[in-house]
Amino acid sequence: MNPFRTIITPQKPGFTISHTDRLVSIGSCFSENIGQRFGNYKFNININPFGQQYNPHSMAQAIERLLNPVPYTEKDLVLHNEQYHSFHHHGSFSKSTAEETLLGINNSLHKASEDLHKATILFLTFGTAHVFKLNETGATVSNCHKLPGTLFSQQLMSPTDIIAVLQPVLDKLKQVNPNLKIILTVSPVRYFAFGAYENSVSKAHLFTAINALQQNHPQHYYFPAYELVMDDLRDYRFFADDMLHPNQQAIDYVWESLANTFFDSKTTGALQQIEEVLQAINHRPRNPHSEAHKKFVAKSLERMEGLKKELGVEF
Question: Would you call 178 exposed, middle or buried from its count of C-beta atoms within 10 A (0-12, 13-18, 19+)?
Fold first, then answer.
């Protein structure tokens, strides 16, 4: 009998990912979900140092700033609703004082700049080709922070626009860090703020630009997160209540596919051991003073120490 669904099997890249790698993930909320899986399994990963970013222009600006980490100052902030915001950053960085906001922003910038210069893997997850520009300066913003809409203009980046902003910064990145592997993905989250048709056009522009980038740089690997959700799973039962965001089951499926694509048998075995140790840590014994539990704790500590020596992971 023929299968009742389209099964997407990502092509194997010419490299693997292990706990010896240093990872950076930049992009949408979906990239954050997958990045957190790496973090949960004790990979060395820096996730969204500017907060969630969705459009290629903002992501290119972020990489440029990480390559040249000039600290942000108060003139880069705007005060709105009793909080200081940066148009380059997610609202999670916004605080009630400029000093507090800048502390979080610049600490993240410094750490991520170091990580990107030493990284072996960079994930870039694009969500939309729609951008907002500040009318006063024409600068692209990552977040409007609920300021009046009259302050901004919305534009749709063409594939040519996307390539023009990404190509130079990715070339510069490869010059600074020649060992870096870049993995490109498109978020399966549908952005219906402008309409269903507009979302399809936006995603099409992203795919066209990524294809062109790969034509120029075949070493850039495309991982089909979008296709895994929209073509393989292809069912609303794999979406959250808003019917736009993949639910936990869909994220689990994409992670499983990613693991099968990038991990060798040694890393897969290490993940199993880490999961068992994490389960042991979260175990709540009925009798914490029993000999059986003491032996269980001793064995778990021994396994943790062994994984620390073998993989360098910390629990």
Answer: exposed
Extract the tokens encoding 205.
Answer: 């522009």
**Class of domain 22-263 (CATH, top level):** alpha beta
pTM, entire model: 0.93
CA dist., res. 282 & res. 295, Å (int): 16
- Find the Cα–Cα–Cα–Cα dihedral 17, 23, 29, 33, rounded to 10°: 50
- Determine contact, residues 33/279, Cβ cutoff 8 Å: no
Closest CA relative to residue 184, chosen from 15, 19, 25: 25
Q: Residue ranges per domain, the chain? A: 22-263, 265-315
311/205 Cα distance (integer angstroms) = 40
**Interval 179-194: pLDDT, tens:** 999 999 999 999 999 9
Which of 185, 190, 186 lies closest to 239 in space, CA to CA?
190
